[in-house]
Hints:
The longest helix is centred in the C-terminal third of the chain and has 26 residues, at 172-197. The protein has a 5-stranded antiparallel beta sheet, sandwiched between helices. It starts with a helix and ends in a 16-residue tail after the last helix. By secondary structure, the protein is of the alpha+beta class. The chain has 2 domains: 3-169, 2-Layer Sandwich (Beta-Lactamase), CATH 3.30.450.40; 178-228, Arc Repressor Mutant, subunit A. It is built from 9 helices and 5 strands.
Amino acid sequence: MDSGLLSETFVDLADTMVADFDVIDFLHLLTDRSVALLSASAAGVVLADPRGQLRVAAASSEAAGLIELFQIQNDQGPCLDCFRSGQPVTASDLTGPAPRWPRFAAAAAEAGFRTVQALPMRLRTQIVGALNLFGSGPGPLEPEDLRIGQALADVATIGLLQERNVRRSEALAEQLQGALNSRVVIEQAKGKLAERLGIGMGQSFGMLRDYARNSNQRLTDVARNFVDSASADFPPPARGPHAS
C-alpha cells in the first residue's frame, strides 16, 4: 500500500472547510482513493436524503454506480443492510449457492463483481450513508484493508458533518440533497458529452472533472453550463459566480 497516498487521502478527506467545498468531488475522491488504496475493483457511496431514502452519490465506475442503483431500486443488497444496521456487511462470494440477496447477487455477478464489503458512514449513532467496495475475485477484504476502509468512511463522515457545523446556516439534509441534485446534472452532462464525442461515460466524466479542476470551477457548475449550452464545443463558456 502507498503510505504517502494514504496520508494524503486522510488529509484531503479531513479538509472540508474551504470556501468552495464541493461535496460531489469530495465523494468521488473517496471512491477513487478507496480503489487505489484497497483490494477493491470499484467503489460506490450511497447517502440518505432528507426523508431517509438512500440515493447513489458517487461511484468509481459506471458498473459500480449501476449496481448501487440496482440495490436501491430492488430494496435488496449489502449496502442497504449496512445503512440500516450501522454495521459492516460482507458478501464474500456472490456466485455461491443460496446467496443472501438473490437478485442483487445475480446482477453483481453479471457486472463482474463477486464480493462486496459495505462500510457504514457514521458518527456515533448518526448514519449518513455507506461506502461500498466491490471485488472481482472471491474472498473478503484483508483485515488491514477493512480497517483502513472503515477509517476512510469515518473520516469522510466527520468531514461532511464538520462542514455542516462550520456553516451553520445550512443543514446537513439540505447539503446532501443539494449534492444528490447536483449528481443529476452531472449525469446529464456526462451523457451529452459522451454522445457528442463518441466516447465512454467514464471518459466523459474525467474530462468534465479535469476541466473543473484546471479552471478552478465547481464540477456542478461546469456540468450545468455544458448542459445548458447550445454549442457543440467542449468546454462550455464559463459563467456564474465560480467561473474563472
